[in-house]
Each structure stands twice: as C-alpha cells, then as structure tokens.
Amino acid sequence: MRIFAMIVSKELLSFLRSVMLVLLVIYFFTADVYIAGAGIQIKPRNVVVGYVDETGGGVSQKILARLHKPEFRQPIAFLSQKELSNAIFNKEVMVGIIFDSDFAKNYRSGKKAQINLLLDATAASQSLTTFSYLQNIVFDFQEQNFPLEIKSHKLFNQNADNHTFMALTELLSVITLLIVILTAIVFVKEKEEGTWDIMLLMPVDSKITILAKSFSQVIIVMVGTVMTVGFVLLGAFDIPLNGSFWAFMLLTLLYSISSAGIGLFVAAVSKDVMQVAQLSIMIMMPLIFLSGAWTPIYAMHPLFQTLSLFSPLRYYIEGTESIFFRGTAFVDLWPYFSGVVILGILLYWYGFRKIGKLF
C-alpha cells in the first residue's frame, strides 16, 4: 500500500502540477507522432528481392538483372511461391517476383505475359519504389512491342500508405525518449530543489521509493500510449490493428520498464535536468538508430546489425509491427517478448543498483 500511496499521492500529483511538463508529454504523444506520420518519407536502400522463376531463365533473368545496388540486393531464388510468401511474412524478403511457366513463351509469341508481384507494404516507400522500378523495366520492353502486364498484391498495408509506418515508428521512439527522461527527472528534481535529504529521511524503504518513482513514470507513458493509439494511430491515420491490443500493451509495459532502467542510470549520474537531457540523448539516439526505427536492419553495416541485437527497441519495434500489421498470434510473439524481457531485466537491475547507491 505504501508504494501505491507514493505513486498516486506524490508522484502522479506532482506530475500533474507541472503544467509545462504535462503539455510537453501531450505534445509528444499527439502532435509529434502526427507530424512524423504525415511528413516523413524513407528512401529505400538494400531492398531484398526474392523470385520464383518457372521459365528456366532468359527474359526473366534480364528483368532481374536491372535490380542493382545501392537500391537492391542480389535477388534471391525460391523454389515455390509458398516459400517466397513465407520469406516475406518472416521479413526475410520485402519484394517477391513470380514468373510462371508460360511467361517466356507468351512474351516471345506476343501474347499476354504476366508477372506476379508480392509486396510487403509495411514500409510503403520501399515496396512502391520497387514497383516503380519494375514498371520502368516493363516500359523498356514494351518499346519492342511485346505485351506485358504486371499484377501486384500488397501485403499487410494494402493501400501502401507510408503514414501508417512512420506514425507507429515515431510513437515507439517517443515512448523510448519520454520514459528515460521522465524517470531521470523525477529523481534529479529532488537534487535541484534541495529535497533529496528530506526524501532520504522518509520512513519508507529506499527500494519502495525507487520503485514508486520509476513506476509512476511508466504509468504516465502507458496512459499517453493509449491516447496516441486511440486518437492518432487508429483515429487520424486509421492504422490497422490486426493483432491483439492487449499483447501490444503488455509489450509496451515490459519495454517501458526496461527503458526506465536506463532512466535510473541517467538519474544516478546527473546533477541537474540539463545533464539528464544531454545524457538521455547520448544514450538513446544510438539505440534508436540501431533499432530499425529509421533505417531497416538489413540496410545497416553487418557490425551495426550485430549491435542492434542489444537494443531492446529493436524487439519492441518488430513485435509491435507484427501485432499491428501482420496480426501475429500471441504465442508467436515470444522472440520479441524474450528480447524485451531479458534486456529489460538487465537494464532495470543495473539502473536500480546504480541509483540505490545514493540512498
């Protein structure tokens, strides 16, 4: 009951009394996410293309040869459309091209030749740019008066709306920054206001104090997340929620706790709010860059791809995208939950010990 009383009567009320801080949090959970979703575009790099070629080569290979670096990697061959579809579902391939057995024969005889195209439209700009490249290739062949038609099937984001991807990614980045900064500030304000010694004299165990202060900020972020999902993601952008909302909230809770551990560390080494801001940016920006929030993991240098395994935000982003866009079942989300939980335990344990030495 003591920890509940501290969270509600002290920390949350203290947050609500700080009007500017409340407005700042509301801004990040509303306007910032909306602006990111409405205005940011991503240029594709190292897009992975898979293909099924039942023609035996020839014309199909000439088309594939037009896909080259830096926009595309070397196309990967698959034995069947089922294998290719599974690779797209598992995020191993972004674009799938299928040449059926009659493609080359119809192409050379002047009949209607068809290319089937599968697009993972989660990241709409990359998939649509690939589609545009293939259209240009087709136009080159059409100059030779060969009839050719491309049929595309967009997966996970049927309208190829880039706003859905960017708005969701921005929300996850906002959650990361806010939980770290808010957790650190709630301790550092005690130092700045000269109430740190008074806090130490409270008839409450230091562990309860640390838990109450950190979990109060987790509650604030969780409330902001619900507000953003309801008003911005599902409201303004009409983002599809194909999976479980409660699975997303549980993943967000676990991730917020792991990020709160980073905030505890920042609070332990910071003397004022300015240092909190500086250290938070220095720590969190590399984690965001390595998470796939702004640059897909597969487009990074191999060294950075390895380092990204130590970013809890990577697992949070991949898990959230699987819930929203792919509708992945809860039981199949265990790799993302495992990554967040393991790294979360380590981060929160370290931050808890670091701040605990000041009590």
Features:
single chain; alpha/beta; abc type-2 transporter like fold; 5 strands; 8% strand; transmembrane; ABC-2_transporter_component
Detail the topology: elements first, then pairings:
Blueprint: H1 2-17, H2 19-39, E1 49-53, H3 59-64, E2 76-77, H4 81-89, E3 95-99, H5 103-109, E4 113-120, H6 124-142, E5 148-155, H7 162-192, H8 196-200, H9 206-236, H10 245-269, H11 273-289, H12 302-307, H13 312-326, H14 334-356
Parallel strand pairs: 1-2, 1-3, 4-5
Antiparallel strand pairs: 3-4
What is the structure about, briefly put?
This protein is α/β, with parallel strands linked by helices and 359 residues long. It has helices spanning 2-17, 19-39, 59-64, 81-89, 103-109, 124-142, 162-192, 196-200, 206-236, 245-269, 273-289, 302-307, 312-326, 334-356, and strands spanning 49-53, 76-77, 95-99, 113-120, 148-155. The protein has 14 helices and 5 strands.
